[in-house]
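Record type: ASSEMBLY
Status: queued
Input:
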Amino acid sequence: DTAVSQTPKYLVTQMGNDKSIKCEQNLGHDTMYWYKQDSKKFLKIMFSYNNKELIINETVPNRFSPKSPDKAHLNLHINSLELGDSAVYFCASSRDTTEAFFGQGTRLTVV
Amino acid sequence: AQKITQTQPGMFVQEKEAVTLDCTYDTSDQSYGLFWYKQPSSGEMIFLIYQGSYDEQNATEGRYSLNFQKARKSANLVISASQLGDSAMYFCAMRAMNTGFQKLVFGTGTRLLVSP
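Status: finished
Output:
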């Protein structure tokens, strides 16, 4: 039973396309996150949701839109993909201030 | 604002030896948590150990221990008896605890290579 699962694991797409990454957690956590890991392995928060409500939105282009249909799910939709969007995207979840558990990551390659 | 600094881009250690990975942090928060994560070549992020700023004892989890020196604002990870499977990227992270829903802020990571 995977605690935080995200799909797909790999995503290769052309510039200008729209794509989605799905994330689900079965840990009963009330906070979920999207992180982006760049080519230098640096991890940066993009969004955070608590009980389906957006609470952190770090200077992320409007082309990125998170959606949380319920506490256990946080999806990421990306419009008009650009080359610079190529990265590994991690979904994570936690209870408030405890450690975050991460999904296996989605490697997005924009060509 | 919080900041995490990991000054060692890469570290080498021989199997069965101990190794220390450095982490210093900067924050104006009185209450915060420090975390270490491991990222093997397969890519997943694995939580290793946690230290709260008010914890008096250094955290330990199996072969991992966190050398917490609050006055120096350092939270070094010590891995004892290194194993080949410890070869990975290691990230130090912190989160403010005084209010809820705070983000984890990560350092740039240290790549550890364990040799036979």
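Annotation: Chain A has a mean pLDDT of 93.
Annotation: The radius of gyration of chain A is 13 Å.
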